[in-house]
Amino acid sequence: MPRPEAAAVCYGGHLDCGSGLLIAIKRAMSGIEVGQALEILSLEPSVGHDLPAWCRLTSHELLDVEQSGEQSSYIVRRGR
Question: Which residues form the signal peptide (predicted)?
Fold first, then answer.
């Protein structure tokens, strides 16, 4: 199955979910429509544990995760 296409990209760098990444994601999500996808790029390993829980709590859907070297890419569909 092909990877879902993202309407926007959020570059998180080394931020973790507790130090500003979630704020950056919320800002990026505000620029896309409900049902569209956001790609989140991160160099922080803890995001892989924290982001799925955040998605469940906020009614967003984690569609795909890819790892390339130190960088992870997450595709999240915006919920309500």
Answer: none
